[in-house]
Amino acid sequence: MRPPRQRRHTLLLMEAVRGQSPILLDTDVDMSAVLADRDRLRRLGHAPSLISYVVWSAGRALRAHPEANAAMTGRRRPRMTRYQQITAKVAFDKRIGSERVVVGGLISDPDRAALSDIDETIARHKQLDIERAPEYCAIRLLHRLPWPAARLLFRAANMRLADRPDRLGTFSVSSLGHQPVDSFYPLGGTTVSIGIGRIRPQPVIRDGRLDGAPVMRLSLVFDHRIIDGALAADLLAATRNHLQSWGGAPSPDADGAAQPRAAALGTLTGRSVAGLTATH
C-alpha cells in the first residue's frame, strides 16, 4: 500500500531533515504566572492560547541568542547562514478529506510582536481550510504531482538558505498538550524545534515549603551541526524564564512591536514558493 498523497508534504520534510544531527533537551516549567495572566485576559474577553505564550517567549530567547537563528545545507560541502529575521513556524492539525495531516504556518518577528498579535495570527491559521485556502496551494500541488516531480519541486523551493525564513521559519513550535502527552521531541526542519507537553499539577518547593503548581514539560531539539548543547541549554532556559516570570500581558517592547505576517506555508507566486513543509 502506498502512503496517502495527503501525507506527501510530511514525507518530503522528513527526507529533508535526515541530514540533521538532532540532540534532545527538556525542562519543567511552572506555568502559574502564565495561567494567571490567561485568567486575567479571559475576564477581559479573550484568553490567548498557550502556544502564543511559548512563541512569544522563544522568539525573545532566540533574539538574545542569535547564533541559534541559523540554517545549514549540504553534506559534502556544507554552507551555513545566520539570519537577522526571526520567524516562527507553528504546527497545525488539519484534515484533507478523511486524512489527518499536520501543516506549518509562519509568524514573522515573534521576537518583537505583541502577544495579542501572535495569538491573532495563530487563530487565523487554525481557521484556514487546507483544501481551499490559497495559502496552501503549494501543498495541494505537491499532492497532485507525480512523486519525482513533487520531490524536485520541494527541493528547489527549500534549497536556497536565504529563502528559508519565508519557507520553513527559523524555529518551530509544536504542541501535543491537549492530550495526555508529557513530552515529545519534534523535528520541524529548523535548527531549533520546540515541543509543548500537557500541564498537570505537580509538587514544587517555594520559599522552602512544599507547594503545588501547574507544570508543563518544554522540550527542545537542536541540530548539533549548527549549535552546541551549552547554547541550546541557554536558549531553553531563557524560554523557560520568560514563561515562569510572566508579569501580565506584555505590551510591545521599547523598540516597537511588529505586526506578525500571517503566512501559511503555501504560495507559489513570485519569490514565496512556500507551503512545502509540515512540522513534526
Task: Note the main attributes of this structure.
about 30% helix, Chloramphenicol Acetyltransferase, 11 strands, two-stranded antiparallel ribbon, disordered C terminus, about 280 residues, alpha+beta, globular
Can you walk through the features of this model?
The protein has 280 residues and is of the alpha+beta class. The protein has a single domain, classed as Chloramphenicol acetyltransferase-like domain (Chloramphenicol Acetyltransferase, 2-Layer Sandwich). It contains eight helices and eleven strands. Strands 1-8-7-6-4-5-9 form a seven-stranded mixed sheet. It has a two-stranded antiparallel ribbon with strand order 2-3. Strands 10-11 form a two-stranded antiparallel ribbon. The chain is globular, with a radius of gyration of 19 Å. It starts with 7 loop residues before the first helix and ends in a 7-residue tail after the last strand. The model is unreliable at 248-279 (pLDDT under 50).
- Let me know the largest β-sheet: 7 strands, mixed
Low-confidence stretches: 248-279
Measured on Cα atoms, how large is the radius of gyration? 19 Å
What is the CATH class? Alpha Beta
Whole-Å distance between the termini? 23 Å
Spatial strand sequence of the major β-sheet:
1-8-7-6-4-5-9
Helical percent range?
25-40%
Beta-strand content estimate: 25-35%
What fold name goes in the CATH topology slot?
Chloramphenicol Acetyltransferase
CATH architecture: 2-Layer Sandwich
Q: Please write the string of helix (H) and strand (E) elements.
A: HEHHEEEEHHHHEEEHEEE
CATH evolutionary superfamily: Chloramphenicol acetyltransferase-like domain
